[in-house]
Design brief:
Structural class: mainly alpha
Number of domains: 1
Number of strands: 0
Low-confidence stretches: none
Strand content: under 5%
Mean pLDDT: 92
């Protein structure tokens, strides 16, 4: 497992939740990228890493796909639910 080299950013509040859930279910970044692609989201490894690191903003349609793939609600990803 690689250690994050950059400090966390402040471009989104979703990234930490995406990383948390992905790790909870034992999913690797490449597996998440593949599932996102199946759901019509073309994101590369660098983009996902920046998203999880809260350096890149999350687009609305990406938020919907992330919730679907990770089997969580949009509200949970936004930190509105525990």
């Amino acid at each position: 497992m690689r250690i994050r080299e950059q400090e966390l950013g402040n471009r989104n509040i979703v990234g930490a939740r995406v990383e948390q859930r992905r790790k909870e279910i034992g999913m690797k970044q490449k597996d998440l990228l593949m599932q996102l692609q199946i759901n019509g989201i073309d994101l590369n490894a660098s983009g996902l890493s920046k998203l999880e690191g809260q350096i890149r903003s999350v687009l609305d349609y990406e938020l919907v796909a992330l919730a679907k793939v990770l089997n969580v609600s949009i509200e949970w990803l936004l930190g509105l639910e525990d």
